[in-house]
Every structure is written in C-alpha cells, then in structure tokens.
Amino acid sequence: MTDTLPERTPMLIGGSEHEAADGRWFPIYESATGAVLSQVPRGGNADIAAATDAALGAAAEWRTMAAAERGRALARIADDLEQQLEPIARLLTRETGNAIRRQSRPEVQSAVDLLRYFAGGAAEVKGETVPLGPGLLNFTTREPLGVVGAMTPWNAPVQLAVVKCAAALATGNTVVLKVSEEAPLAVLAVARLAQQHLPLGALNVVTGFGDEAGAALLTEPRIAKLSFTGSTTIGRLVMGKAAERIVPVSLELGGKGPSIVFPDADDDLTVNGVVDSMRFPRQGQSCTAGSRLLVHASIADSFTAKVAAQVEQLVIGDPLDERTDIGSIINERQFDRVDSFVRDTRERGGRVLTGGARSAGASSGFFYTPTVLADVNPTWPAATDEIFGPVLSAMTWTDEDEAVRMANASSYGLAAYVWSHDIDTALRTADRIEAGWVQVNRGLGQLPGMSYGGIKESGMGREFSIEGAIDGFTSRKTTTVGIRS
Ligand code: NAD
Asked: Does the beta carbon of 253 lie inside 6 Å of ligand 1?
C-alpha cells in the first residue's frame, strides 16, 4: 500500500469488493487537511441484506471448523497485519487525524495483539458437566449465535473493529460490520488482509451512514446479535431495536471518567498518569478518558498547575510527523462542540488554566490546544457531559466520602482512576466507585485479556477478554442423556 489512495475504495461482501447496490459513493476526508482521501460506497438496505446472505453462507463452514483451526486463521491475519502495520497506521492517521507515534501505530499494534489473544483463546470455548444424579449425563456446550451485526465508531476504528470481529469469529460466528462513516478506510484495509484467511463471507464490511446502513443492520431479521460501540444516544436506539426482535445486544457506550487524586499523590507519576488517562494524544476522543479530575483541595492549586505545565509540553501538529503528540480533532462539528464546552465554562466563571483555543499556526484541520479547566462546578456541562475532546475539568473535594459521591454522581460508569500511594485508601476507594473498570495509579488503555466494559449508561457486555467473548457471542446449550443401567 502506498500513500496514494484509489479514488474509490469499495466495501467487502462475500470475499469480494463491492460498490453500493444503488451505486452511490461518499467522500472520506483527511482530518488534518480537509483533502478527500477516497470515496466509499454509501451502503443501505440491499447491501446489508447481501452482506447477511454472505455471512449466512459462510456460517456452516466456519462454525463447524475445529476451534484451533479458527484460531490459526486469526493468528495468520495477525501476522499479515503486523507486516502491514506501517502503511495501515499511516492511513489511519490520515482519516482520523490521530498522531501516528502516539496513537495510530500503537492502535494497529493493539489490533495485532488482540488477534493473537483471541487466536489463542479460540479453543477455550468450553462447556461443563453437571452431576445431576445416577443414570444422567448432563453437559453444556457453547454454540455460536450466528451472524453478528457489529457497529463501530471513528475514534479508534481499527482497534474497536478488530476486538469485536476477532471475538465473534473466534467463537464461531460470522460477521457483518458497519464501520463508521468518518473513518472506514483503515478498517477496510485490515478486512482485505483478513479475507485471505477466512471462508468467503465470514467477515463482511459495509460502509455507509448510521441512519442508512446502520439502521438497516438494526432491523435485518437474520442478524442474531447486535454488538455496538458508540454513543449512549445511539446505543439506546440499538437496544430498542434489539428488544423488538429479542436478540442479544452488547453496548460499549460513552463515559465521563473520574480521576480521584489523594493528597499524597501530588507528584510527577500522578501528573503523567492523569495526562495519559485524559488521552490527550488522541485529542481526548476516548470513552475511557479520565476527564473529571477530582483533586483534594489541599493540593488542588499545585497539582493542577503541574498538569497544565505538563500538557503545555505536548506537541500539536501534523499527525504524520513523528514529533507530534496531538493531531487534529476528527471534524469541524466535533471541534465546535469541544469549544462550546470551554466557552460555556468561561461564561459561568470557570478558569481556563491552559488551552481553550484553536492551535496557533494551524491553517487547516481542527487542531485544538489541550485544555485544563479549574473551578468547575460539578453541575456544569463540562463536568457532567461527555465532551469527547481534549478538555480536562478539575473539581475539588475535602473528604473521601465526598470524593466517592462526586465520582459516582454520573449517569456513566465506564473507566475510573484512583491516585494514591496508600494501598488501603486506593483499594477502598476503587471498591466504592461505580465503574466497569477502575485503574489505580495507571492511566493507560485496555490490554487484551482484561474484561473491559461499562455499567449504568456506559453499556453492558465485556469484549476484551475470552470470557467476555464466550458470554457475549455464544449461547450455552444443555444436553441431558439418560443412561441405561
Ligand atoms: P455514534 O454513536 O454516532 O456512531 C457509532 C456507530 O453507530 C457508527 O458506525 C454510526 O454510523 C452508527 N450509527 C449512527 N447512527 C445510527 C443509527 N441511527 N442507526 C444505526 N447505527 C447508527 O458514535 P461516534 O460519534 O462514532 O463515536 C463516539 C462515541 O462512541 C462516544 O460517545 C464514545 O464514548 C463512544 N465510544 C465508546 C467506546 C467504549 O468502548 N465504550 C469506545 C469508543 C467510543
């Protein structure tokens, strides 16, 4: 693959390249420059139906294949992806605006690691025997659900598509994936590699808009499971559609992660960890961002000043430049939304310690300076809403109960962070936080094998682990045998 992209990039159905049934295309833009990278098909009902036909056609071969053989296929995809890591990371950088060194390259490597993890786990899809009494053999097996309808967002498109597809395929399902209309190109490149190691139609990728291709996937009657990563608003819609057909659903939705800093953690390790947890090098466009900084009042001024100073060291600019830490926000709509939270906070009397403006020197793209807000009231939008941008909102507390109350006063429950070197304080607090994932003195992202997912309005289901894949993508069948004596 070179940096010169084809004028049109087809989607993948049944192992071959397809345009939309009605022949429509739409442009994908380079986030940092606004240039058109390529056109992709504007899929709809007929394309989702064709992809589902293909996935059903591949189902018998894939589900009856020895699990270890399925695992070997995933491992071969991982090897090919690793070979192509650099060009795919560059493509990902161009469509998302995410910095290649800090985000896109590690993201593709994470996809390789996830494929290897699920390759190894494929043969772990086991059942149990249950001792019901003499003359009875009762055992369970785990069966694939069938065709999984997967939907993914734009912020880490390769990692989030691969984790779903690898988990679903490892457990014997076939997949129709509807990729984000903002960033489908790198995922299509990964899927083209994957095709070579899978039965034709086991993995299908449909491009298009949410209210067209996405809506068609939600109502396609032959889809056996909906697996969605995206906003809470659309997640609610997905769950409603799943309820109408009584199909299982997993939802990885939004977040507004608390990051609680105790007085003993006013140090560089915590400052660096808080900056990592805010995912500034992905422009804060992360559901796991620790975007609510809850810092003890006694250290608030010194700690937030250190965070602001650290954030100011981050280099904003061309995401393909190896020196860059922070690239471009995905698009103008998202840029304006981020800025509106900062303006609102200013108008309400909050302080902007650093950032809060378009990056000087940016002639195109959506480069926003990483921002730390202080004196934020916990009821203001910057403290309650998922901004999904490079904005950290600092608030203070004076006793542990208050910190926990503030952390839990959110409709979300995805990721949380606790910073203290006192093990009792840290673990006691971690235990009381309402979140699917609490990190103590660590601010980095998910690793294969950890059961990752949310509670409350952050969703349901766990997708980064083999046990999550088994729970989410198989059903348990019981067989009871009467044995003659
Ligand atoms: P989104 O909800 O707008 O879109 C996600 C996917 O749903 C896209 O493929 C989109 O085309 C599709 N979609 C949109 N409208 C639809 C409709 N009416 N019917 C069917 N499908 C539809 O989310 P986004 O803006 O792409 O991503 C940002 C959001 O994703 C944030 O809220 C973020 O927190 C969340 N997210 C969550 C996780 C997690 O693991 N929990 C990870 C990444 C992103």
From this structure: yes
pLDDT along the chain (485 residues), means of 10: 83 98 98 96 98 98 97 98 98 98 98 98 96 97 98 98 98 98 98 98 98 98 98 98 98 98 98 98 97 98 98 96 97 97 98 96 87 98 98 98 98 98 98 98 97 97 96 98 95
Asked whether residue 80 falls in the same domain as residue 224, the answer is yes
Domain that holds residue 167: 11-253+458-478
Whole-number Å distance, alpha carbon 152 to ligand 1 midpoint, is 6
pLDDT digits (tens, 9 = 90+) for 107-130: 999 999 999 999 999 999 999 999
Which backbone phi and psi does 440 adopt, to 5 degrees? -110, 120
Mind listing the pLDDT tens digit for each residue in 162-193? 999 999 999 999 999 999 999 999 999 999 99
**Amino acid (one-letter) located at 378:** P
Q: Does residue 115 belong to any structural domain of this protein?
A: yes
Integer Cα distance of 441 and 191 in angstroms: 36
Separation between Cα atoms, residue 62 and residue 52, nearest integer Å: 15
Other C-beta atoms within 10 Å of 364: how many?
12
Q: Does a structural domain hold residue 65?
A: yes
Residue 302 and residue 163 share a domain:
no
Q: Are residues 415 and 386 in the same domain?
A: yes
Known catalytic residue at 165: no
Q: Does residue 96 have its Cβ closer than 6 Å to ligand 1?
A: no
Does some domain include residue 463? yes
104-140: b or e for each residue (b if 16 or more CB lie within 10 Å)? bbbbbebbbbbbbbbbbbbebbeeeeeeeeeeeeeee
Are 84 and 221 contained in the same domain?
yes
218 CA to centre of ligand 1 in angstroms: 13
151 with 295, same domain?
no
Q: Of the residues 95, 252, 386, 463, which is catalytic?
A: 252
Pocket test for ligand 1, best of 45, 152, 233, 234 (most atoms within 8 A of CB): 234
Nearest CA residue ID for atom 14, ligand 1 = 210
Is 393 among the domain residues? yes
